[in-house]
Structures
1.
Amino acid sequence: MNNPAELPFFVYGTLRPGEINHTRRLRGRTAAEEPAHWAHALLYEGPGYPYAVEGTPDEPGPGVTGALITAAPGNYRALLADLDELEEYTAPGHPGNLYERVPREITRADGTPVRAWVYLTPPGPAAALRREGIPIPGGDWCAHPVA
């Protein structure tokens, strides 16, 4: 099992392999990158990047397609700080957070579950997205044409 302080990251937007922030923030700093899926979640269009929202019992969602990223040895703390900065995450529940960083169960392509950090939309903005946001069909931002 992973050390809770050094969980891998589940990325689903601009940090996925082949996307702009993967090149800027992750290239050369990872030990492993593998396809993964976060069940019972929804993905919404954002201003050039997506918003992930945790599903509810009434609306579990199709899940979110992404990648599981494991930091290269010796890179974890710096990578965590860099991703927190990119995702505008300060601390749990901080009112200035664009995303909350939370541990969730992610599924590898082979069906194996793994606990990973996920940057998801805080409750207030998530409720607004559920009311008036534009869902990304199938939960795959990279397969969705950007307007």
2.
Amino acid sequence: MTFADKVISLNRHLTYTGGPLPNGIRVMNPYRESEQANTVSEAFYRKYYSDDQSRYLILGINPGRFGSGMTGIPFTDPKRLVSECGIAYEGKVTHEPSSVFIYEMINAYGGPGAFYGKFYINSLCPLGFTSIDEKGRETNYNYYDSRELQDAVKDYIVDNIRTQINLGVNTDVCFCFGTGKNEAFLRKLNNQHGFFKNIIALEHPRFIMQYKSAVKQFYIDKYLSAFAAVQGF
């Protein structure tokens, strides 16, 4: 099986097997909720991962509603899927700030073909969560936003990391998007289970776009330097 075959199969069978969720929190599974997410993500992985090469693993937090919640591809919203990856998307073309940063960084690296030939992005928790307020409005919810949810998904996250490793990624280094709670949680799990020899944390794209957009190029350069260092450039 190619790397693409493995990822596509994993996504097609992805279900939530963690503990009971807190009241008002639901699981967001684009591969069960949208056939288009399956179609476009399969096209994406076949385009960039149809080989048996190992990649460096990058782990984000969990999917968001307007990015991978729509496309099934981490940090890739419908706009970037069409404009940067050349893959057609039907319906509402949503915009996610994290995806904007990621594809500016990817283009600075050399483009999607070059980047995805070396790196594979997923998340500590491969499925997303949303909360619904008293007015029925739905918002993203991170796995660490409550201790109850974090405890419920801990074993699920451990299983997910093992599953991602079994795709054939490099375990000498794992990159972590998020230098706060996401990094702390991953490091704690890594100390317990010894998944990776080293973890390199980088500021989360959403944080950069929300709070550091004026110096965005600094963070693009920081990402590129971190990636180049492990590849011996």
